[in-house]
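Contributing: when you submit paired examples, paste them exactly as shown. First protein:
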Amino acid sequence: MKLDLNKNSPSAATQSLTELFLSFDGRVSRSTYWLRYMLPYFLIYVVLAVLDISLGSFDYDTGYGTTSGLFTLVGIIPSLAMNIKRCHDRNRTGWFLLVGLIPVIGLWPLIELWFLKGTDGSNPYGADPLS
């Protein structure tokens, strides 16, 4: 299936969001990762957590309530997709995320994916998202 990249197409924005959040292929830059995924995800979670607190359904021990917990469950696939694309941008396989499960050493994927620039030019996972 080929995406319609015509900016005037009404479905172009929807397809690009679908491709961005539900596809595990390709690369994503740090700016796209932070501005189109991390920041909105965090803001939506905070709003839902405040809603849970006001409804009395927030559990302070777990950090989740009814709506914020459902949002987190729905966000598992987009989270995996975006993090795998950041791995691809760093010229690593998506399996690199499993390093995060190792105590102490597990901080390295966070540092690498959140703060380090992707590889310049094309790599086996696709074209440079900044070009």
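Second protein:
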Amino acid sequence: MEIILLIVVIVTIIELIIGSAWLKFYFTSGIPIFKRSIRLSESPGLFEEALNDKFKKGMFIPLRFKKIAEGQVAFREIILDGMSYFKIGYLPVMHGLIRYNDMSGELHVIGFANWYNFLVLIVFIVFSSVLYVLLSMSIFFPIIAFALIYFIQAKRFNNVYKTLLAENNIQNSS
């Protein structure tokens, strides 16, 4: 069990470093678990400064945005932010990408699953299974916690999508 926990810690640290370095491959690949798309008649404004200002307010830890390529803006929660001490935090289950494809005219807001989630979920299920046998505890707690955090993040990612539409005066038909 100690080796599994060590692997989870190492993967989490590596993921934090890669995410903090805003490495393009991390924000453009992975397992998509959230996606909103719309076809546009013209290129939208993807202004990271405006998005950073908009999403630093509120009760949750801020979302931070960074352009990583032409037509691509990565985003994620900033957990270690000096202004976030009095905000609600959680262990994020995904990181995001805003992508505009000039050829197809499609705007996508995508949430990719964080790598450590699957390892943490497996550890919780194994650990909870052992506890369930010993203490008659439910193994559903980690699944419920994962789902709750996903829905919080999905709502926030959807707000990014809606903000992009509003900032570009686009009517959403869906």
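If you have annotations for the second protein, write them as plain sentences, like these:
The mean pLDDT is 83.
The chain has five helices and five strands.
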